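Subgroup meeting minutes
Present: P.N., E.W., G.H.
Scribe: E.W.

1. P.N. recapped why we're keeping a running log of single-chain structure predictions: easier to compare across weeks, and new members can see raw inputs and outputs side by side.
2. G.H. added today's entry (200 aa).
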Amino acid sequence: MGRGHGGTRSGSGTVATTERGLSQKVARAVTQMEESIRTNSFESVHAFDDMGNETYQKQGSAKDAYRVTGIDVKMLKDKVVTHNHPRSLGKSGIKSIGNSLSPSDIVTAVVSDAREMRAASPRYTFSMKRPAGGWGVSEKELKSRYSSVVRRINKLDSAYIKSQNYKVAAIERAEATYWHRVNKALAKSLGWDYSKSKKK
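Output recorded in log:
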């Protein structure tokens, strides 16, 4: 799939990492949506085409505000998909960072062949972009890779927390950054483009 040459710029004049590779029109549509949903108490999913048009949206139910079910993956092919992660609403300190993309987010991106999967927490945006040659893995292989990466990150976390004498601050830091580190390691192992950027 072709990529745009423009990008949105922060107040400092630099292109936000998560918006690199998107045309200005698409980046504007996606980031405006993210600003409108990132502090919602319920989760919603939105997909955009190459022209910046919203082509799909689905909202979570009141019963399960943190998860959207029944997503039509056929509607997400080649789209930039974004959604909000509300779990960190009202949290302070490192817990306010919010979760990065979940395993189900990444599986959805691969199964649907989405162009990009994004998640907006109250403070950050997280993004996993499909390489030019495609995601390059089956769902089965992806889950196997995930298991391997998770085992490695868990070992590192255990060693880190132990080295910090099991202090609460160390445990909270490990928990708050867990999925970010998992996704960073997963992307490196598969040659994917993973990034995060702080809310402007």
